[in-house]
Write a structure and sequence with these properties.
Elements: H1 21-32, H2 45-124, H3 150-174, H4 180-190, H5 193-197
Helix pairs in contact: 2-3, 3-4
């Protein structure tokens, strides 16, 4: 099995960046203490702006050093990352080809199952063109899942046909209403007798 072997010894990896942190911190704390309770008036506002400019310059110098060190630290990693991504690209090429074949195979299975479901529906459909398999309240996309057995799909189709037949029978035979056509029309859209009656 191929695996990435890091040839640079671990102790050569950058583990810490030593610098005069304590010295800088102590110096900053001593020098910046005088600015903490400063109050600038209209007469000393110019001095306040100059002080702010000095402090911003100091802040920029510290941040520039941070960016510089970060860049140096990341340089070997970025070279490593580029090479690793190139290797990943080599793996992706056949993976994509295999993936496309699997998807095509699964799509063919779905289409075969769809045809089987349509044929079963057509053999059982007592409604003719009144209700088709692609009716939004009849068709269930989950029927095409590989985990869904065809026997279960057939059972669901039979159950829906039975529900529709009983609903139409209730409307056509048992219902006495001047709105029978509208009720029937709503039922054929929704397959919900209560909703149609409402």
């Amino acid at each position: 099995m191929l695996e990435v072997k890091i040839l640079t010894p671990q102790d050569k990896f950058l583990t810490a960046i030593e610098f005069n942190y304590d010295e800088l911190k102590q110096g900053l704390q001593q020098n910046l203490e005088k600015y903490e309770n400063l109050v600038f008036t209209e007469e000393t506002m110019k001095e306040g702006k100059e002080t702010r400019a000095k402090l911003n310059k100091l802040k920029k110098a510290l941040d520039d050093k941070r960016k510089d060190i970060k860049k140096q630290c990341l340089e070997p990693y970025e070279k490593f990352e580029t090479k690793i991504n190139e290797l990943i690209g080599l793996v992706d090429k056949p993976t994509l080809a295999i993936d496309n074949q699997i998807k095509a195979y699964e799509e063919a299975l779905k289409e075969a199952k769809r045809t089987e479901i349509i044929n079963y529906f057509n053999s059982k459909n007592p409604f003719g063109e009144l209700i088709t398999i692609d009716h939004p309240k009849f068709w269930d996309e989950k029927w095409l899942n590989t985990t869904k057995k065809i026997k279960d799909v057939e059972f669901e189709i039979d159950t829906k046909i039975d529900l529709i037949e009983k609903g139409l029978e209730n409307i056509d035979i048992n219902l006495q209403s001047e709105f029978k056509p509208q009720i029937r029309d709503t039922f054929l859209k929704t397959f919900d007798l209560n909703l149609a009656l409402a």
